[in-house]
Amino acid sequence: MSSRYLRGVPKKTYADQGWCPVARTLDLIGERWTLLILRDLLLKGPQRFQDLQNSLAGAAPNTLSARLKALEKQGLITRRLYSEHPPRLEYQLTDRGKSMGPIVAAMREWGKRHTSRG
Fold it and tell me: Which ranges of 1-118 would DSSP assign to H, the alpha helix?
């Protein structure tokens, strides 16, 4: 569905579960592609937009851009200008973002044990 149809539709959150730390964490990282962006930054270090787009085949550029902006707003990543003409950005994890490492590692191990490759 095109994003133009979703304008004005509030983002689904777990606000009614605000007492739960798992729900609050899902509000930060629960959207599609977000954990995979964190995975790439954890495993590969700083990445350019094009690098992330190549790694996340199937993620629309506008979706990837929105996820990166949200992660930056939440203090999980920062962006650095590496070229002014044309403007080019590189994304890297903050200390807060790096603290997601054990969560992503645990998900990776669980996936290796309990899922099969499609």
Answer: 21-29, 34-44, 49-55, 61-73, 95-98, 101-114
CA separation (Å) from 79 to 7, 24, 37, 39?
26, 24, 13, 16
- Residues 40-50 pLDDT 10s: 999 999 999 99
pLDDT tens digits for 67-93? 999 999 999 999 999 888 888 899 999
65, 26 Cβ separation under 8 angstroms: no
Q: Phi and psi of 92, rounded to 5°? A: -145, 160
Sorted by where each starts, the structural domains of the chain and their CATH numbers stand as 33-114 (1.10.10.10)
